Amino acid sequence: MNKPEKTHSVVTPHELWLLNGGVDRRQPSGVDAGFKFRNGFLMLAALYFIGRLLFIPQLTLASFNFPPVMHDQSFNLQMRGFYTLAVATVYAFSYAKDWHFSRVALICATLSFASLVSDAFNIYSLAVGPMAPLIIFSILIRLGVIYCLFMNSVRDNLAPPLPRSFFK
Fold first, then answer.
1. For 63-102, how does the pLDDT look when each residue is reduced to its tens digit (9 = 90+)?
2. For the whole prediction, is pTM greater than 0.85?
3. d(Cα 151, Cα 153) in Å, to the nearest integer?
4. 161 in Cβ contact with 26 (< 8 Å)
5. Nearest to residue 43, comparing CAs of 149, 162, 151, 154?
6. Closest listed residue to residue 62, CA positions, set 137, 136, 134, 141
7. Helix crossing, 74-97 with 101-122: angle to 10°?
């Protein structure tokens, strides 16, 4: 009679674990020290824009040099401030809890870029005369925010380990 053949696995248990998705998606090879500085910059920029848009919209509008026939835009600026506050809150929660952080950071970067392009056509083009230095400063800060959000999205695998904090 035939002897039953010994069955042995072609794949080791460790390899089977790897094939079944046992590898952590994020295997950090170190922590990017730039996260602390980029998040600090993002926090200061959010406070700057939220403060200007929510609490002093008239001062912000005065720096645009709009023609006198244009109606008051302070309500629109305050709504933009609430929008910025909502996006910053979602980003902060995503970073602190590691809730789809790379996707949220990329979405925030995309929203910031789309908002900047939209403002270039709908706001900055309506200004009369040369641009005020404060507006140019704000545009440069917005470009910095887009860069930091994009870099945080790309370097997500080098984020600090959980639990995360903005003040470490």
1. 877 777 677 778 888 999 999 999 999 998 888 888 888 8
2. no
3. 5
4. no
5. 149
6. 134
7. 160
